[in-house]
Amino acid sequence: MTTAKAYRGVAMEGVIATWYTKNTGRDLRRFSEMAQTVARRAPAGTRILEVAPGPGYLSIELAQRGYRVTALDISKSFVRIAQKNAAAAGVPLDVRLGNASAMPLPDASFDFIVCSAAFKNFSDPIGALNEMHRVLAPGGRGSIFDLRKDAGREEIDAEVDRMRMSPINAWMTRLTFRFMLLKSAYTREEIERMAAASRFGGCEIASDGIGFELRLIKAR
To answer: What pTM was computed for the model?
Structure first.
Protein backbone atom coordinates (compact mmCIF):
# COMPACT_ATOMS: atom_id res chain seq x y z
CA MET A 1 0.00 0.00 0.00
CA THR A 2 1.45 3.38 -1.00
CA THR A 3 1.16 6.69 0.82
CA ALA A 4 -0.14 9.96 -0.66
CA LYS A 5 3.40 11.31 -0.76
CA ALA A 6 5.84 8.95 -2.43
CA TYR A 7 9.02 10.53 -1.05
CA ARG A 8 10.35 11.85 2.25
CA GLY A 9 11.65 15.43 2.46
CA VAL A 10 11.52 18.14 -0.19
CA ALA A 11 10.60 17.52 -3.82
CA MET A 12 13.58 17.28 -6.15
CA GLU A 13 12.18 19.66 -8.71
CA GLY A 14 13.19 22.91 -10.39
CA VAL A 15 16.10 24.80 -8.82
CA ILE A 16 16.80 22.02 -6.30
CA ALA A 17 17.10 19.41 -9.08
CA THR A 18 19.36 21.73 -11.07
CA TRP A 19 21.61 22.34 -8.05
CA TYR A 20 21.82 18.61 -7.34
CA THR A 21 22.62 17.84 -10.98
CA LYS A 22 25.42 20.41 -11.11
CA ASN A 23 27.08 19.30 -7.88
CA THR A 24 26.85 15.54 -8.37
CA GLY A 25 28.12 15.97 -11.92
CA ARG A 26 31.42 17.51 -10.79
CA ASP A 27 32.93 14.10 -10.10
CA LEU A 28 31.56 11.19 -12.13
CA ARG A 29 34.08 8.68 -10.78
CA ARG A 30 31.69 7.29 -8.20
CA PHE A 31 29.13 6.51 -10.92
CA SER A 32 31.83 4.70 -12.88
CA GLU A 33 32.74 2.75 -9.73
CA MET A 34 29.09 1.80 -9.14
CA ALA A 35 28.77 0.74 -12.78
CA GLN A 36 31.79 -1.52 -12.29
CA THR A 37 30.15 -3.02 -9.21
CA VAL A 38 26.95 -3.67 -11.18
CA ALA A 39 28.97 -5.18 -14.05
CA ARG A 40 30.35 -7.80 -11.66
CA ARG A 41 26.79 -9.02 -11.00
CA ALA A 42 25.10 -8.35 -14.36
CA PRO A 43 26.23 -10.09 -17.58
CA ALA A 44 26.50 -8.17 -20.85
CA GLY A 45 23.14 -7.45 -22.48
CA THR A 46 21.27 -7.48 -19.18
CA ARG A 47 18.02 -5.50 -19.00
CA ILE A 48 18.63 -3.00 -16.19
CA LEU A 49 16.20 -0.73 -14.36
CA GLU A 50 17.57 2.17 -12.35
CA VAL A 51 15.07 3.37 -9.77
CA ALA A 52 15.33 7.09 -8.92
CA PRO A 53 18.22 7.88 -11.30
CA GLY A 54 18.17 11.63 -10.69
CA PRO A 55 20.25 13.28 -13.45
CA GLY A 56 20.89 9.85 -14.97
CA TYR A 57 24.66 9.68 -14.57
CA LEU A 58 24.73 6.02 -13.47
CA SER A 59 22.19 4.97 -16.10
CA ILE A 60 24.33 6.63 -18.76
CA GLU A 61 27.45 4.82 -17.51
CA LEU A 62 25.59 1.52 -17.72
CA ALA A 63 24.20 2.27 -21.18
CA GLN A 64 27.71 3.09 -22.37
CA ARG A 65 28.72 -0.40 -21.26
CA GLY A 66 26.12 -1.94 -23.56
CA TYR A 67 23.31 -2.62 -21.10
CA ARG A 68 19.67 -2.03 -22.04
CA VAL A 69 18.71 0.57 -19.44
CA THR A 70 15.39 2.00 -18.28
CA ALA A 71 15.39 4.79 -15.70
CA LEU A 72 12.35 5.56 -13.52
CA ASP A 73 12.07 8.75 -11.44
CA ILE A 74 9.22 10.51 -9.67
CA SER A 75 10.72 13.94 -10.41
CA LYS A 76 9.56 15.54 -13.66
CA SER A 77 12.68 17.74 -13.55
CA PHE A 78 15.00 14.74 -13.26
CA VAL A 79 13.20 12.94 -16.10
CA ARG A 80 13.87 15.92 -18.38
CA ILE A 81 17.46 16.31 -17.16
CA ALA A 82 18.27 12.59 -17.55
CA GLN A 83 16.84 12.58 -21.08
CA LYS A 84 18.93 15.62 -21.97
CA ASN A 85 22.10 14.13 -20.43
CA ALA A 86 21.61 10.81 -22.24
CA ALA A 87 21.11 12.60 -25.57
CA ALA A 88 24.28 14.63 -24.97
CA ALA A 89 26.18 11.40 -24.20
CA GLY A 90 24.80 9.76 -27.33
CA VAL A 91 23.40 6.68 -25.60
CA PRO A 92 19.92 5.12 -25.73
CA LEU A 93 18.16 5.53 -22.39
CA ASP A 94 14.46 4.91 -21.72
CA VAL A 95 13.57 7.49 -19.05
CA ARG A 96 10.13 7.29 -17.47
CA LEU A 97 8.12 9.13 -14.83
CA GLY A 98 6.89 6.94 -11.99
CA ASN A 99 6.69 6.05 -8.30
CA ALA A 100 9.11 3.44 -6.90
CA SER A 101 6.33 1.80 -4.89
CA ALA A 102 3.83 1.75 -7.80
CA MET A 103 5.95 1.26 -10.93
CA PRO A 104 4.20 1.67 -14.29
CA LEU A 105 6.16 -1.33 -15.61
CA PRO A 106 5.21 -4.92 -16.48
CA ASP A 107 6.00 -7.95 -14.36
CA ALA A 108 9.35 -9.72 -14.82
CA SER A 109 10.62 -7.15 -17.32
CA PHE A 110 14.16 -6.66 -15.97
CA ASP A 111 17.14 -8.81 -15.07
CA PHE A 112 18.82 -6.34 -12.72
CA ILE A 113 17.71 -3.35 -10.65
CA VAL A 114 19.92 -0.62 -9.24
CA CYS A 115 19.06 2.27 -6.94
CA SER A 116 21.60 4.82 -5.71
CA ALA A 117 21.30 7.40 -2.89
CA ALA A 118 17.51 7.36 -3.00
CA PHE A 119 16.19 4.43 -0.97
CA LYS A 120 16.24 6.39 2.30
CA ASN A 121 13.92 8.95 0.69
CA PHE A 122 11.14 6.50 -0.19
CA SER A 123 8.07 6.94 2.03
CA ASP A 124 7.13 3.28 1.42
CA PRO A 125 10.46 1.40 1.32
CA ILE A 126 8.95 -2.07 1.68
CA GLY A 127 6.47 -1.26 -1.06
CA ALA A 128 9.39 -0.18 -3.25
CA LEU A 129 11.21 -3.45 -2.52
CA ASN A 130 8.07 -5.41 -3.40
CA GLU A 131 7.77 -3.54 -6.71
CA MET A 132 11.42 -4.25 -7.48
CA HIS A 133 10.71 -7.92 -6.85
CA ARG A 134 7.65 -7.82 -9.12
CA VAL A 135 9.40 -6.28 -12.13
CA LEU A 136 12.46 -8.55 -11.81
CA ALA A 137 12.52 -11.74 -13.84
CA PRO A 138 13.01 -14.99 -11.86
CA GLY A 139 16.68 -15.20 -10.88
CA GLY A 140 17.02 -11.42 -11.27
CA ARG A 141 19.25 -9.43 -8.96
CA GLY A 142 19.42 -5.94 -7.49
CA SER A 143 21.85 -3.56 -5.83
CA ILE A 144 20.75 -0.65 -3.66
CA PHE A 145 23.47 1.84 -2.74
CA ASP A 146 22.83 4.35 0.03
CA LEU A 147 24.21 6.16 3.06
CA ARG A 148 25.07 4.30 6.27
CA LYS A 149 23.38 5.66 9.39
CA ASP A 150 26.65 5.24 11.30
CA ALA A 151 28.84 7.09 8.76
CA GLY A 152 31.32 9.25 10.71
CA ARG A 153 32.00 12.95 10.30
CA GLU A 154 35.54 12.41 9.00
CA GLU A 155 34.27 9.86 6.47
CA ILE A 156 31.64 12.31 5.23
CA ASP A 157 34.18 15.14 4.98
CA ALA A 158 36.46 12.92 2.90
CA GLU A 159 33.58 11.98 0.58
CA VAL A 160 32.58 15.62 0.08
CA ASP A 161 36.21 16.53 -0.65
CA ARG A 162 36.14 14.00 -3.49
CA MET A 163 33.23 15.87 -5.09
CA ARG A 164 35.44 18.85 -6.03
CA MET A 165 32.88 21.48 -5.10
CA SER A 166 33.33 25.17 -4.45
CA PRO A 167 33.89 26.01 -0.75
CA ILE A 168 30.30 27.23 -0.28
CA ASN A 169 28.77 24.19 -1.99
CA ALA A 170 31.03 21.84 -0.03
CA TRP A 171 29.96 23.52 3.22
CA MET A 172 26.27 23.22 2.26
CA THR A 173 26.71 19.59 1.28
CA ARG A 174 28.40 18.71 4.58
CA LEU A 175 25.50 20.31 6.46
CA THR A 176 23.03 18.41 4.28
CA PHE A 177 24.76 15.11 5.09
CA ARG A 178 24.95 15.76 8.83
CA PHE A 179 21.56 17.32 9.52
CA MET A 180 19.32 15.84 6.82
CA LEU A 181 20.65 12.75 5.06
CA LEU A 182 21.97 10.95 8.15
CA LYS A 183 18.65 11.50 9.90
CA SER A 184 16.87 9.77 7.02
CA ALA A 185 19.42 6.96 6.65
CA TYR A 186 18.74 3.46 7.97
CA THR A 187 20.73 1.28 10.31
CA ARG A 188 21.86 -2.15 9.14
CA GLU A 189 19.25 -3.76 11.39
CA GLU A 190 16.44 -1.65 9.90
CA ILE A 191 17.50 -2.54 6.36
CA GLU A 192 17.64 -6.25 7.18
CA ARG A 193 14.16 -6.10 8.74
CA MET A 194 12.69 -4.36 5.68
CA ALA A 195 14.28 -6.83 3.27
CA ALA A 196 13.02 -9.75 5.36
CA ALA A 197 9.49 -8.27 5.37
CA SER A 198 9.54 -7.78 1.60
CA ARG A 199 8.91 -10.37 -1.11
CA PHE A 200 12.66 -10.90 -1.35
CA GLY A 201 12.60 -12.39 2.14
CA GLY A 202 16.17 -11.36 2.92
CA CYS A 203 19.29 -9.67 1.61
CA GLU A 204 23.05 -9.37 1.77
CA ILE A 205 24.64 -6.10 2.93
CA ALA A 206 28.17 -4.93 2.17
CA SER A 207 29.64 -1.73 3.64
CA ASP A 208 31.30 0.64 1.18
CA GLY A 209 32.85 3.88 2.45
CA ILE A 210 30.11 6.08 3.93
CA GLY A 211 27.51 3.85 2.38
CA PHE A 212 26.37 0.29 1.88
CA GLU A 213 25.31 -1.99 -0.94
CA LEU A 214 22.12 -3.94 -0.33
CA ARG A 215 22.18 -6.99 -2.60
CA LEU A 216 18.93 -8.68 -3.56
CA ILE A 217 18.04 -11.84 -5.49
CA LYS A 218 14.63 -12.96 -6.75
CA ALA A 219 14.25 -16.72 -6.46
CA ARG A 220 13.73 -18.67 -9.67
So the answer is: 0.84
